């Protein structure tokens, strides 16, 4: 059987040889964040990406957690290259993109992220061009950021087309999710948030949780916060983590797998998702790294 990574590299190579599109505007950029750790953000991001892919969308998953990158661990995939190798020009974009379950393309996190903000203009142009090669073939690029609101996470949130905020019914998670959105909204009111409640006991608990955050956002921030849906607390999720297989792959008929499928459908059904104009990867990178080309 042909190595799938070779197929991906050929795709990038064919992109490189054609006339550049100039916009890189095909991919919608989604940042996934949370107010605190332990809410299942990375697990959600991974399975959400797989759900979108199962619906025929072309998805690239980017592990953007600088300190605690773990998407590859959740998939049980050993990665040879990451962002660092691209920045040092030790590998091209086709080499640093790995394939996870269901042939999901992803870029491993870890070292290299902090070096992005010290790139020379020539290196920045190289990085942008390389990322644009694959971005032009994607419908969605998902960035799984670190928990909390670091300066790096703020850059991702304020540069993306959408920000999905993951919380749980725990009071600390609710408080921290609201605090994150408050800080971002006060300085960048244009940011588009969507709320997901993870590890919910049932639909009612998820709805009560979302209502608390949404009412506070409406009253104190004048922010209308769309509620995307919830994922049930499901023992299959823990079992899948131990197996290092995404729960939607290991247990496709589990409650959590059905929930994340429904969430993906809800996201795609939103009027603003597949009809609104997106900035594209070049616009995202320009805002993210605060450079103007």
From TrEMBL:
Domain of life of the source: Bacteria
Keyword ATP-binding (UniProt): yes
Keywords per UniProt: ATP-binding, Nucleotide-binding
Name of the featured protein: MinD/ParA family protein
Nucleotide-binding keyword on record: yes
Pfam families recorded: ParA
Matching InterPro entries: FlhG, MinD_FleN, P-loop_NTPase, ParA/MinD_ATPase, YlxH/NBP35
Segments of this protein annotated with the region Disordered: 1-24
SUPFAM superfamilies on file: P-loop containing nucleoside triphosphate hydrolases
